[in-house]
Amino acid sequence: MELWFDPLARSGPEAMAADEWLLEHAENPVLRIYRWDGEWGSLGYFGKIEDARGCLSGVNLVRRWTGGGTVDHRSDWTYSLIVPKKFEVARMRGGESYRAIHEILTGVLRVEGGDPELAPAKGKSGGMCFENPVEFDVMDAAGDKLAGAAQRRGKLGLLHQGSVATAGNPRLRGELFAERLAESWWEAEIHVDEGRVAEIAALRYARKEWLERR
User: Fold this and answer.
1) Quick check: 176 and 170 in contact, CB under 8 A?
2) How many angstroms from the chain centroid is the CA of residue 171?
3) Which numeric CATH code is attached to 2-211?
4) 62-84: per-residue pLDDT in tens?
5) How many whole angstroms separate alpha carbon 144 and alpha carbon 165?
6) Which residues are the active-site residues?
7) pTM for the whole thing?
8) What b/e string do you get for 106-126 counting C-beta neighbours within 10 Å, with b at 16 or more?
């Protein structure tokens, strides 16, 4: 697996487009750790823009290609896991892969301190993501949601977009996560086609019609 610390802080549309580009081109699973350029929140593919704006007034918003609720990215730790179709986890059922990835993430967060655990019961997935834990999300000892994610599967593979409410040490957390996700991993310098990323952003994620589709 390739661990990529994206060196660029990106706008919401560019961040989403970079994940889509990776899904189009990755030959190995990629764990991407990235930062946001400015104050951003994201809403799921099926989310209502009015609800997101009510939750995050005055914050820039981008609609994800994945599902889930509204997430405030102003102080979180954001990652994406891109898995080509030929790898087993991309062929798992949604709940199975969600649980497997979050079990590993829970172990990483325990190394940092505290006693996080997986949410045991299904809940609602709308509204503010970190106010509505769903089954297999990560919760802290007080029962508050600590980490969540959303997924999309297609002919190219799995896109898993995740967020941890606490920023922690981005590099150390990324390395621990990669170490536990894969039998072997290496830190990669991925040369993204920034022209294509900008094109994807312009054609999809930056369009008003995409953002306000619901």
Assistant:
1) no
2) 16
3) 3.30.930.10
4) 999 999 999 999 999 999 999 99
5) 10
6) 129
7) 0.94
8) bebbeeeeeebbbbeeeeebb
